[in-house]
């Protein structure tokens, strides 16, 4: 198997094992056994268990960015602001459903190696930056000061993350339900920033 494919396979399985057992309880042997490779091969690719965890988180961050941007592109930059907002929030919850093990892994922030914490925060920063850039392109928000808009973006990112955590205990809440909860909670304030014609 080519190295790129093997790395992708190792990351996918490592993500599952970390989520099932927790970072501390997982050994490189556990992962190697499930992948069907030798432990030295994983060390050669990722250096350490912390390096493997970092690679898992970095991969999840990239995939989330791609999913969010694809949702915004699908609705188009000229769509009404509420449609753009809903598309981004919906993409986040759909991603969580499709990558449940990655989300469990990210939520173990307190239990993971210290080097992973900045990577986890970088996911939040990435989503904030991408959301801010998308909102800045919306003509309806052109006159809103950066500081105010940044504050709203942080509220959105925080709301999405907390609702996603809540959903881990409420499997009956769908991605669509979660999207509606966040949008209906935040839209009133965000729409108040749009000048009335």
Query: What is the structural class?
Result: mainly alpha
> Which of globular, elongated, flat, extended, rod-shaped describes the shape?
elongated
- Number of folding domains? 1
Give unreliable regions as ranges: none
The Cα radius of gyration reads 19 Å
Q: What is the element string, with H for helices and E for strands?
A: HHHHHHHHH
> What is the number of helical segments per DSSP (H or I, 4+ residues)?
9
Report the span from N to C terminus: 60 Å
Q: Just give the CATH class.
A: Mainly Alpha
Mean residue pLDDT: 89
Architecture overview:
Helix content is 75%, strand content 0%. The protein has a single domain, classed as Tetracycline Repressor, domain 2. It contains 9 helices and no strands. It is an all-alpha fold and 197 residues long. It has helices spanning 3-21, 28-35, 39-46, 49-75, 81-98, 100-107, 116-136, 146-167, 175-191. The longest helix is centred in the N-terminal third of the chain and has 27 residues, at 49-75. Helix 4 packs parallel to helix 7 (116-136). The model has no long low-confidence stretch (mean pLDDT 89).
């Amino acid at each position: 198997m080519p190295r790129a494919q093997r790395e992708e396979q190792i990351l996918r399985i490592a993500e599952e094992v970390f989520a099932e057992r927790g970072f501390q309880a997982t050994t490189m042997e556990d992962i190697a056994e499930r992948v069907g490779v030798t432990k030295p091969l994983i060390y050669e690719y990722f250096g350490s268990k912390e390096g493997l965890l970092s690679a898992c988180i970095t991969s999840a961050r990239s995939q989330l960015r791609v999913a969010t941007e694809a949702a915004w592109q699908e609705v188009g930059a000229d769509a009404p602001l509420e449609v753009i907002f809903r598309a981004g929030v919906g993409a986040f919850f759909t991603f969580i459903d499709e990558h449940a093990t990655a989300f469990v892994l990210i939520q173990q922030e307190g239990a993971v190696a210290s080097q992973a914490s900045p990577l986890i925060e970088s996911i939040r920063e990435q989503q904030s930056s991408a959301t801010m850039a998308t909102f800045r392109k919306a003509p309806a928000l052109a006159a809103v000061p950066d500081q105010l808009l940044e504050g709203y973006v942080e509220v959105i990112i925080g709301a999405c993350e907390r609702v996603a955590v809540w959903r881990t205990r409420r499997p009956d809440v769908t991605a669509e339900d979660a999207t509606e909860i966040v949008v209906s909670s935040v839209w009133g304030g965000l729409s108040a920033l749009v000048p009335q014609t």
